[in-house]
Amino acid sequence: MLSMFKSIPTHMDYKGQKLAEQIFQGIILVSAVIGFIYGLFIQQFGWTVYIMLAGFSVSCLLTLPPWPMYRKNPLSWQPAVPETSGENRDKPQENQSQKKKKHK
């Protein structure tokens, strides 16, 4: 059962994050305007809040899960550099430590 949860993709690419943010803000803005106008028309502030909460719920449902529309532009990662012997990694570079900066 644990392997079933590990197979669910949990990432978004950068363009997908931008799209999700735009959708989220658009839905919130539209629901705020509709809620304000409807609440003003019927003189009930509670309906404004309900409509805003409904818009928030819909926007969360559409933007929080990593839907496939948010994963269309994956990043191309550079290949991994093979590890060399530990001698170079542990020894500090002598050239850089011996250089002295001159201030003018």
Automatic annotation (TrEMBL):
Q: Tell me which UniProt keywords the record has, alphabetically.
A: Endoplasmic reticulum, Membrane, Transmembrane, Transmembrane helix
Which top-rank group of organisms is this from?
Answer: Eukaryota
Pfam annotation, one family: SPC12
Q: What is the membrane topology listed in the Swiss-Prot or TrEMBL record?
A: Multi-pass membrane protein
Region entry Disordered: which residue ranges?
Answer: 79-104
Q: Which GO terms describe its cellular component?
A: signal peptidase complex
Q: Does the keyword DNA-binding apply?
A: no
> Which compartments does it reside in?
Endoplasmic reticulum membrane
Q: Transmembrane region positions?
A: 21-41, 47-67
Q: Name one GO biological process term.
A: signal peptide processing
Q: Where is this protein chiefly located?
A: endoplasmic reticulum
Give the family per the record: Belongs to the SPCS1 family.
Its quaternary organisation is:
Component of the signal peptidase complex paralog A (SPC-A) composed of a catalytic subunit SEC11A and three accessory subunits SPCS1, SPCS2 and SPCS3. Component of the signal peptidase complex paralog C (SPC-C) composed of a catalytic subunit SEC11C and three accessory subunits SPCS1, SPCS2 and SPCS3. Within the complex, interacts with SPCS2 and SPCS3. The complex induces a local thinning of the ER membrane which is used to measure the length of the signal peptide (SP) h-region of protein substrates. This ensures the selectivity of the complex towards h-regions shorter than 18-20 amino acids.
Q: What does this protein do?
A: Component of the signal peptidase complex (SPC) which catalyzes the cleavage of N-terminal signal sequences from nascent proteins as they are translocated into the lumen of the endoplasmic reticulum. Dispensable for SPC enzymatic activity.
Annotated protein name in UniProt: Signal peptidase complex subunit 1
